[in-house]
Design a protein that fits this description.
By secondary structure, the protein is an alpha/beta fold. Helix content is 43%, strand content 15%. It starts with a helix and ends with a helix. It binds 1,3-dihydroxyacetonephosphate (13P) and iron/sulfur cluster.
Length: 311
Amino acid sequence: VPTGADLLAEIDRLRKERNAVILAHYYQTADIQDIADFVGDSLELSRKAAATDADVIAFCGVKFMADTAKILSPDKIVILPDMDAGCSLEDSCPPEKFRAFREAHPDHIALTYINCSTEVKALSDVIVTSSSAETILAQIPPEQKIIFGPDRHLGGYLSRKFNREMLLWPGVCIVHEAFSETELLKLKEQYPNAPIAAHPECPPTIIDHADYVGSTSGILKFAQEFEGDTLIVATEPHIIHQMEKALPEKNFIGAPGADGNCSCNICPYMALNTMEKLYVALRDLEPRIEIEEGIRLKAKRSLDRMLEMAG
Ligand code: 13P
Ligand code: SF4
């Protein structure tokens, strides 16, 4: 595997040779974000994957995101640099348990966060991302009963905001769960004028202090617009790379975990993808996402509904 400038050049050469598009999430390391053709949130990446005319999608994100790309673009080769790049929310929701939960509540529809397996998508009615959840929930008649999974913090946030009861699956994101309210308040004392932007996967102890709550793309938009010189960012800290690029004169601080710094809020799954593994994946067209057609079609129904309803 080449190193340094050669590695960048080789990834670029392979991307052209393979007619590949490199899609990256904001939680990937700066080098991956910088070499990607497109960097986005879960909804934007799904839309890009559905619309691309490339032959290969090199997905730099976690597995449920690459699975989503394959569900929406089955004729493309979809590669993920590290197949072990999972997600604690997906792990919290085994399909057979989710099926039993649904069967126990037959009068409820399943509104499901995209951070789940293909099997769970196939068992769901409508998928949401953090950037589309509010728009989609607003279109569901108030009398309709809802199961929301797998993220109980996003579900709880929506439930409070819409004043609408939902049955919540008990999953959490281990990254957003690790923010410390005590340490956040200490930081806020140091920077009393700095607003806090938080992802809705954060627990209510963090959300309650936030000036803005939204998806990664929403937080980035807020970073472009806030007045002042310092912003506290309560989501995975690799997103700060985009903020520093766009607004080098401002100060962006990752919200702290219990140890007082933001390093424990690095997503360990996202971190499995590296430039070296991206190179190998483009070279070998492996590891490759494969999904059985029957399950793909069922999962596509709930994803298509999301794409329609998200507007
Ligand atoms: P976004 O859709 O806001 O990018 O969130 C994805 C994610 O996994 C957050 O942890
Ligand atoms: Fe999953 Fe959390 Fe990592 Fe997002 S940050 S991919 S929700 S574990």
